């Protein structure tokens, strides 16, 4: 599949890292239409440039706590058509849950230290821009930590494993390859998850997204 040309807004307060990412993304066929070093600059850039996706660091000036992800939540509310890829050294589970509260489509959350290749990052950008999901396994684990007993607890270990890979944005074929099982076996596990989560098939609904949201939301109950 040929990736489309992406318009990107990049929010990163480190000038050295920001300039390096602009160069890397440009070499991979992405157009960084604006950069931002603060949350207000990010909001203004997204409003002014209407990018396909915004890359957001969590901790930005002035307090370097959660300004970036707060801005990401605001972008999600103001411009839901813009994909958001949080790219950070930190996991903020509470704010990540808020970011995902209205749907996992078009959302990514990757940890800088775990992205080994530029191609992985660019693939995640395209996936998010196209309405997919890209969640680091550690982010999913943090979101699930301390969850109350609920529907997730009804899953078998294999069903939970399949659902976690769904949360990372993998297709059934990709999950089958990772788990070294048949695609048909994965389909059965996915169907079991839908049944246990009481997600009935409708023409309009994306049950994969709803299953992932159920999985992520239980830590907030």
Automatic annotation (TrEMBL):
SUPFAM superfamilies: CheY-like (SSF52172). The modification 4-aspartylphosphate is found at residue 57. It comes from the Bacteria. Residues 7-127 form the Response regulatory domain. Residues 148-208 form the HTH luxR-type domain. Keywords: DNA-binding, Phosphoprotein, Transcription, Transcription regulation. It holds the Pfam family Response_reg. This is Response regulator transcription factor. It comes from Streptomyces musisoli. The lineage of its organism: Bacteria, Bacillati, Actinomycetota, Actinomycetes, Kitasatosporales.
């Amino acid at each position: 599949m040929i990736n489309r040309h992406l318009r990107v807004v990049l929010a990163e307060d480190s000038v050295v890292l920001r300039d390096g990412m602009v160069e890397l993304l440009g070499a991979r066929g992405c157009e960084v239409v604006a950069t931002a070093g603060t949350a207000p600059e990010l909001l203004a850039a997204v409003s002014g440039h209407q990018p396909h996706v915004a890359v957001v660091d969590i901790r930005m000036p002035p307090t370097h706590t959660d300004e970036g992800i707060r801005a990401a939540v605001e972008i999600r509310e103001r411009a839901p058509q813009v994909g958001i890829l949080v790219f950070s050294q930190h996991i903020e589970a509470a704010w990540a849950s808020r970011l995902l509260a209205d749907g996992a489509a078009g959302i990514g959350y990757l940890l800088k230290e775990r992205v080994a290749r530029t191609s992985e990052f660019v693939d995640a950008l395209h996936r998010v821009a196209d309405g997919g999901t890209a969640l680091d396994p550690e982010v999913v684990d943090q979101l699930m930590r301390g969850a109350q007993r609920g529907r997730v607890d009804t899953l078998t270990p294999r069903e939970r494993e399949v659902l976690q890979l769904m949360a990372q944005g993998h297709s059934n074929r990709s999950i089958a390859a990772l788990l070294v099982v048949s695609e048909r076996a994965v389909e059965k596990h996915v169907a079991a998850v839908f049944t246990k989560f009481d997600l009935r098939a409708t023409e309009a609904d994306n049950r994969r997204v709803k299953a992932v949201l159920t999985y992520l939301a239980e830590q907030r109950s």
